[in-house]
């Protein structure tokens, strides 16, 4: 049994509450609007209480998450950098099975949001362009055609775009600050539009992952060092609507890098500590399979975390991108250490920019 503290948590979620702005955007792109069903549920834990979480509370692992940035569909993360050339973004991908690939796609200022939007098991190159409305531009790998999805507004954040309904297709999603809260707006490929209010916009960051391992991404946030409780992961489990939380990491010195390091299909709480001082970068994670605390020195100060499943064994590998050397260093869980010089120092690296920070 793992124990976690639920001190002063104020989290609530609402489903199917469309803001006027989102309704307008959905109407614009012809997405059918749902009836004005409104369901609201408060999930406020007893202040100062201590809760317990049994592993058996969660549904058994069903469908493992796909590894990020797998453009050739062999279930291995591919090395990917994106270069600004006169305002145009050029994607350079060293694919694990099919070799090198280059594609011009997007403009400087776009957010990089690759994912498997068409469900062919290969990641699609994609960007999100802030505007009124904002727009996802997706280069569908199955047909090599452009898909345009107007979704979100100017100041939204699309980094939590992932597969929320578990059909194997990435769902366009954004977080938005609304009245001091964070609201997740999600255009699910199978189940349609939903919105979920979860987290405090002053202190929390939306994060990616499937923490209960049901094959559906969970709405989740990391509460930073000025929040209460500080330095805490909060997850709204898609499997049963319950909340799980764990105080883990030191935000002032950490990158927030949740991923499935033990390969049980559930995202593990994880951070990389190398932002302030010291030469060594240390990964810390809490294994979802047995609750064990793990740590590993890998990388140096200043390296950017680029975790992924580079050897395709189902376990996320610790990996860093070293800017000056333009080199990926990877601690592969099955095949051991490897490195690849790839890119130039000013490139963007999607495996890094997809992280909350
Ligand atoms: Ca691959
Ligand atoms: Ca989906
Ligand atoms: Ca889930
Ligand atoms: Ca795990």
Indicate the topology.
Blueprint: E1 2-6, E2 12-15, H1 20-28, E3 39-42, E4 49-53, E5 79-85, E6 88-95, E7 99-107, E8 111-112, E9 125-129, E10 135-140, E11 145-150, E12 173-178, E13 181-188, E14 192-200, E15 204-206, E16 219-223, E17 232-236, E18 243-247, E19 254-256, E20 269-273, E21 280-286, E22 293-300, E23 304-305, E24 318-322, E25 327-332, E26 336-341, H2 350-353
Antiparallel strand pairs: 1-4, 2-3, 5-6, 6-7, 8-9, 9-10, 10-11, 12-13, 13-14, 15-16, 16-17, 17-18, 19-20, 20-21, 21-22, 23-24, 24-25, 25-26
Bound molecules: calcium ion (4 copies).
Give me the side-by-side strand order of the main sheet.
8-9-10-11
Number of strands: 26
Instruction: Note the main sheet.
Output: 4 strands, antiparallel
Query: How far is it from the N-terminal to the C-terminal residue, by CA?
Result: 30 Å
Evaluate the radius of gyration: 19 Å
- Percent of sequence in beta strands: 35-45%
Q: Could you state the oligomeric state of the chains shown?
A: single chain
The helicity comes to under 10%
Question: Briefly, what is this?
Answer:
The protein is mainly β and 357 residues long.
What would you note in describing this structure?
This protein has 357 residues and is mainly β. It contains two helices and 26 strands. The protein has helices at residues 20-28, 350-353, and strands at 2-6, 12-15, 39-42, 49-53, 79-85, 88-95, 99-107, 111-112, 125-129, 135-140, 145-150, 173-178, 181-188, 192-200, 204-206, 219-223, 232-236, 243-247, 254-256, 269-273, 280-286, 293-300, 304-305, 318-322, 327-332, 336-341. The protein has a four-stranded antiparallel β-sheet. The longest helix has 9 residues, at 20-28. The protein is globular and about 45 Å long. The two termini are 30 Å apart. The structure holds calcium ion (CA) (4 copies). One calcium ion binds at residues 163, 165, 167, 169, 171, 188-190.
């Amino acid at each position: 049994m793992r124990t976690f503290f639920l001190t002063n948590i104020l989290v609530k979620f609402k489903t199917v509450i469309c803001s006027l702005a989102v309704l307008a955007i959905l109407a614009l792109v012809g997405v059918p609007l749902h009836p004005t069903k409104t369901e609201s549920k408060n999930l406020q834990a007893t202040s100062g209480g201590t809760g317990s979480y049994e592993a058996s509370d969660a549904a058994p692992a069903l469908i493992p998450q796909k590894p990020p940035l797998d453009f050739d569909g062999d279930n291995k993360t591919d090395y990917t950098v994106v270069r600004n050339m006169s305002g145009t973004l050029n994607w350079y991908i060293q694919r694990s099975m099919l070799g090198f690939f280059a594609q011009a796609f997007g403009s400087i200022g776009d957010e990089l949001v690759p994912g498997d939007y068409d469900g062919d098991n290969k990641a699609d190159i994609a960007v999100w362009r802030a505007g009124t409305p904002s727009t996802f531009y997706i280069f569908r790998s199955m047909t090599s055609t452009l898909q345009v999805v107007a979704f979100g507004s100017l100041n939204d954040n699309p980094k939590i775009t992932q597969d929320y309904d578990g059909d194997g297709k990435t769902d366009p999603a954004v977080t938005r600050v609304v009245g001091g809260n964070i609201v997740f707006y999600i255009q699910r490929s199978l189940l349609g539009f939903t919105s979920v209010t979860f987290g405090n916009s002053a202190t929390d960051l939306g994060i990616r992952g499937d923490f209960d391992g049901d094959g559906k991404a969970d709405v989740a946030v990391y509460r930073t060092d000025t929040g209460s409780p500080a330095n805490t992961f909060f997850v709204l489990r898609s499997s049963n609507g319950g909340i799980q939380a764990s105080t883990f990491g030191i935000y002032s010195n950490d990158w927030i890098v949740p991923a499935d390091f033990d390969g049980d299909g559930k995202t593990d709480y994880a951070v990389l500590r190398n932002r302030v001082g010291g030469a060594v970068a240390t990964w810390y994670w809490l294994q979802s399979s047995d609750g064990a605390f793990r740590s590993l020195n890998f990388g140096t100060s200043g390296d950017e975390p680029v975790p992924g499943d580079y050897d395709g064994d189902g376990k996320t590998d610790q990996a860093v991108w070293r800017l000056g050397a333009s080199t990926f260093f990877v601690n592969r869980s099955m095949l051991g250490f490897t490195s690849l010089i790839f890119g130039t120092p000013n490139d963007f690296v999607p495996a890094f920019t997809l992280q909350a920070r």
